[in-house]
Structure formats: structure tokens, C-alpha cells
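Review form for a predicted model. The reviewer records the input and the model, then writes brief findings.
Reviewer: anonymous (R2)
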Amino acid sequence: MKARNLECKKGEKYCPPLLLKIAPDLSDKDKKDISDVVKEEKVDGLIVSNTTISRPDSLKNENKKETGGLSGAPLRELSTKTVKDMYTLTKGTVPIIGVGGIGSGADALEKIKAGASLVQVYSAITYQGPVIAKSILQELEELVKESGKSNVSELVGESANI
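Model under review:
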């Protein structure tokens, strides 16, 4: 990372942003260690989060005991908590892409208030098709207006404790 950053400073070559994607199943110590490294090494941003290996009690499907990564709506709360934790640990200095369980404008706003500068939608598109993006944006626009803010960026990190 240090060598990459030195090369980028020279301006001799294009250096695309480098983002680190993390799991939502990390311990508090792991999150702290990652935030320290990300700040020290000047990683360009975080993608929070990958799939989870945990299985929430709310899962009712007979396949809930299968191994592997779980994504979508069951991941939403855990992912949002991890966004908030990383935003707090980095003191809002590292851009975060919030991922996991976003299927509505309210879900997107929840991630943004937790500290996400951007959100990624995937599982909802798989189940509801690309039209969900327009629906999420329209609802998010209404929620921003209702908040009295003029721009969604004013809400980034609003519910985090920094």
C-alpha cells in the first residue's frame, strides 16, 4: 500500500481508488484494527459489508442451516451496525459504501445515517428487477425532503456517535 501511494503521488500513472471490503461478522477488536490500518495506510474507502456467515433467528426457511454467505434482507441490521461502527472508528474520514439488505429508500437512508456515503443494491435487484433502483431513489428523495435537509449528503453519519 505504501509503495502504491508513493507511485500515485508521483503522478506518473493512474491509480484507481482502492477500497477494502469487510465482513459484518468481525469482532470489535478486528474492526478497530482494520480502522487503524485503513487510516494509517490511506485506503481510499470501505465496502461494508460482505455476506454474513451468521444465521439470524428470524430466518424461517428450511435451508437456514446451510453453510456459506447469507445476503439480502437478513443481513440488513448486522451490516448497518457494521457501517456505523466503522464510521465511528474512522471518525467519518473514510468513505463507506453501505451494502446489505437494501430494498427500499428507507433501507438506503438507514445506511446513510449510519455513515455510508454511497449504497449498493444487489439482492433486491435480483428479486425485484432493475426497476427497484428507481423506486429506492424516489423514496429516498422523499425521505430527504421530509428530513428538512437539502441534500442526502447532509445525512451521512447522522446516527453515528462521533
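Findings: Residues 131-147 form the longest helix (17 residues).
Further findings: The first strand starts at residue 19 and ends at 22.
Recommendation: see findings above.
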